[in-house]
Design brief:
single chain, alpha+beta, Pnp Oxidase, Chain A, seven-stranded antiparallel beta sheet, 3 helices, 12 strands
Length: 166
């Protein structure tokens, strides 16, 4: 198989043209909770209710999801851009301090649900797949919730965006 006629930057720039919502994926194990910002999220099935999230293979996030077997998807609103940046930061607190300054409650799986999230889906790990340099985690939704009093946080071409008035 020959190498593609484009670079990884070309690929990233092209897929970056697809506007996405922004999520924080959270999980909790025996020791402590963990969270990470992700925009690779999608619904998979209505029956049973399944969603997927993608993480970098062999990353801290992948290890936590795999070990804990549960996760929650927190869909962020525009008012939560600072939370997106917090959970994307390599310098954020880890371990027991990871959620010390973050308002949240705990879902039935034990995963943190961020206060003010536009929507959340609390999941039990259904299956996992390796795909290139990422891991795909498919979760069965156990609990969910939504609110309609905020606008979604959007990410497009490497920047946070606001929806335009229709």
């Amino acid at each position: 198989m020959s190498a593609p006629a484009f670079s990884s930057k070309d690929f990233r720039d092209t897929v970056g043209a697809f506007a996405t919502g922004v999520t924080v994926i959270t999980t909790r194990g025996e020791e402590h909770a963990y969270g990470m910002t992700a925009n690779a999220f999608s619904s998979v099935s209505l029956d049973p209710p399944l969603v997927l999230v993608c993480t970098i293979a062999r990353s801290e996030g992948s290890e936590h999801l795999r070990r804990n077997g549960v996760f929650a998807v927190n869909v962020l609103g525009t008012h939560q851009e600072p939370l997106s940046r917090y959970f994307a930061s390599k310098d954020r607190p880890r371990g027991r301090d990871a959620f010390a300054e973050v308002s949240h409650r705990v879902a039935s799986s034990g995963s943190p649900i961020l206060e003010g999230a536009l929507a959340y889906l609390d999941c039990r790990l259904h299956t996992e797949h390796a795909a290139g340099d990422h891991d795909i985690f498919i979760g069965e939704v156990l609990e969910l919730g939504t609110r309609d009093d905020a606008e979604p946080l959007i990410f497009h071409r490497g920047q946070y965006r606001l929806l335009g008035a229709g």
